[in-house]
Design a protein that fits this description.
With about 500 residues, the protein is of the alpha/beta class. The protein contains 17 helices and 20 strands. The two termini are about 25 Å apart. Bound molecules: adenosine-5'-diphosphate.
């Protein structure tokens, strides 16, 4: 048996992306950092991800298993490569397993190319889910490793729960395994045409309203919610919101039907990778006690984006350009913002219409707006450090990471009061200003007017340095590390096993 500390759990975590191997958004940050934190706290973690092209593996990646996966009635040969990542202060390495099937994963994108989803995404993630279960079986049967929990993330891994529970005869040795599904965004459910159900290899009886059927289509996330032992999401407010028609994206009824509810555990951040004191992406480092380096970062950012070096409020936007993020609301208030002495920087990719709109405002105000329509990790760090405020006008936000990075980098977040934004940014109010715990600004309506009011208030407060400075400091001092959240996950894993709570 693989040794674990007396209290340690054996956790297999499956996800379609994880930092530092593959990333399109916050899911990758969360999975990568949570896996490390659990390893650090004495648990034995095996992280399973697809073996995409150009993934940043070290040289010591080696072949760990050869699997035969049933796809469409035929066996498909899949290789599993292994990398063991040493974790400072931890008893074990973090074991990362890459599911290699090049016809499916050796591609330019993770889920899409040129703004179009790959047409075979159902097959790709069906194969991945089957491979995850074969890996668990392999760990148990051949390597004699016990596995306590299988932790799934989002629709791409949700079918693992369905196979496990709906085909118990195929997974006999895995019957004791407890499955947790974490929902990172209800807007992405893995919905495919009903005719493709046969590709899943699941019994046709499961294609029904009480199974995976969703108005005539297949809904992978729905299957995961029904068949997992427990379901969680990434903030307490989002956990409540998704029970309603406004935020549940059609699955609110399925969630409400779960007797045990949905647990909300707020994400942390990787405080080592996102640290203004040591960030290698920055031209100057700084601390809460000495913010002079932040000023230098602001000047460097202005230079990099060819904006005039002026001491005016610099407002930032970072994120996927989608309807969810509410950046269209920002487009609506840019003329007003430009009538004030401000600069704006935007980093994002996504919706072509939004990209065009941002390009148009950039053309109109070339020396006031800095625009990067690409994915650029280093630039995200430099914008977090060099800006004064970060805008997140999200229509919904399960947790949100960009505002957490802002807090850490002394950049004041202006957020719509929804999901994790409501839970992580302490709003500017007389009482919170007095107690020096305010860290940002909230607005409630998803409207341009509401956003503009919050922006105008923040620009007014920005001029009052004796009020602004404590806002920055309270944000930078907030504990955003994964420690607390990882403990809550361990509590949940143990609760699922009917064991005592760890904390
Ligand atoms: P979501 O997961 O919905 O995309 P989050 O706020 O939870 O949103 O996480 C977004 C993550 O992706 C952050 O780490 C952010 O810095 C990063 N990110 C988003 N867009 C870009 C981009 N264009 N370039 C670099 N990083 C980006």
């Amino acid at each position: 048996m693989t040794p674990v500390s007396e209290d340690g759990l054996n956790i297999v975590m499956a996800a379609s992306e994880a930092v530092p191997y593959a990333k399109t958004g916050g899911l990758a940050d969360v999975v990568g950092a949570l896996a490390l934190e659990l390893t650090k706290s004495g648990h034995h973690v095996t992280l399973v991800v697809p073996g995409y092209r150009r993934r940043a593996t070290s040289e010591c990646c080696q072949l760990a298993m050869r699997l035969s996966i049933p796809m469409d009635g035929k066996p498909v040969g899949v290789m599993v490569e292994e990398e063991n990542v040493p974790v400072t202060g931890a008893m074990y390495c973090l074991r990362v397993l890459f599911v290699r099937y090049d016809p499916y994963f050796d591609r330019q994108g993770l889920y899409q190319e040129d703004h179009h989803d790959y047409p075979d995404n159902l097959e790709r993630f069906t194969l991945f889910c089957r491979a995850v279960l074969e890996i668990v079986r392999n760990l148990i049967e051949t390597q004699e490793t016990m596995v306590d929990v299988l932790h799934l993330h989002d629709w791409q891994t949700a079918l693992c729960a369905v196979y496990l529970k709906a085909l118990p005869h195929e997974y006999m040795r895995l019957n004791q395994l407890k499955v947790l599904l974490t929902l990172h965004n209800m807007g992405y459910q893995g919905v495919f045409p009903g005719q493709q159900f046969v590709k899943t290899g699941l019994p046709p009886s499961l294609f029904s309203p009480s199974g995976l059927e969703f108005y005539g289509s297949i809904n992978c996330l729905k299957g995961g919610i029904i068949f997992s032992d427990a379901v969680s999401t990434v903030s307490p407010t989002y956990a409540k919101e998704i029970m309603t028609a406004e935020y549940g994206c059609g699955l609110e009824g399925v969630l409400v039907n779960r007797m045990d509810g949905v647990k909300g555990i707020t994400n942390g951040i990787d405080v080592a990778a996102w640290n203004p004191e040591s960030d290698p992406y920055l031209s100057a480092q700084y601390t809460v006690a000495d913010l002079s380096g932040k000023q230098a970062c602001k000047r460097a950012l202005q230079r990099e984006l060819e904006l005039p070096n002026r001491d005016v409020p610099l407002l930032a936007v970072i994120g996927r350009l989608t309807f969810q993020k509410g950046f269209d609301l920002l487009i609506g208030v840019i003329p007003e913002l430009m009538s004030l002495d401000t600069q704006i920087v935007v980093l994002g990719t996504g919706d072509q219409h939004l990209e065009k709109q941002f390009s148009a405002v950039k053309a109109r105000y070339p020396d006031r707006i800095g625009l990067c329509l690409r994915f650029d990790e280093g630039m995200a760090h430099r914008i977090e450090a060099g800006s004064d405020m970060l805008m997140m006008p999200s229509r919904y936000e399960p947790c949100g990471l960009s505002q957490l990075y802002s807090l850490r980098y002394g950049t004041v977040p202006i957020v719509r009061r929804t999901g994790g934004l409501a839970d992580t940014v302490v709003p500017f109010r007389p009482s919170t200003v007095k107690s020096r715990c305010a860290t940002g600004f909230h607005f409630i309506e998803a409207s341009a007017d509401s956003l503009l009011s919050a922006l105008l208030l923040s620009l007014h407060v920005y001029k009052e340095r004796e009020i602004w400075q404590p806002l920055i400091q309270a944000g930078m001092k907030t504990d955003l590390s994964w420690g607390r959240s990882a403990k809550l996950y361990v509590d949940l894993y143990r609760e699922m096993q009917g064991e005592r709570r760890e904390s």
